[in-house]
Every structure is written in C-alpha cells, then in structure tokens.
Amino acid sequence: LIDLASNYFAHRKGLLPILGMLLIIINFLLASFLPGDSYLVRSNLALHLGLLVAIFGFMLAWAL
Length: 64
Description:
Blueprint: H1 2-10, H2 15-33, H3 39-43, H4 45-63
C-alpha cells in the first residue's frame, strides 16, 4: 500500500496541498452559510483536516 501511494503521489506532488487548501476554502464557505450551532461550524472540522492534509502533502512532496 505504501509503495502504491508513493508511486501515485510521486507524479502528483501538488495534489494533497491543493486538496488541503480546498478543504480550508470549504470550511470558510460552510462557516458563512451554515448556522452557527452546526457541528461543522463549531468544530472547524474541514479547516483542521485541510491543514493536516496540506502539511502532510508538503512533507510528502519534499521527501519524494
């Protein structure tokens, strides 16, 4: 599984950071349009997940 993932991401180094940035933008849009008592707005789930995916993507791209 790790070999397949490394081969896949070796040719697509910017995919995970772009996906992380899209999740951060989705969090902004959700916070703008959903009511404040929604779980996604209160927890900023997409923001935190987007940051983790983007940082992991930058680290993986640097290693590959």
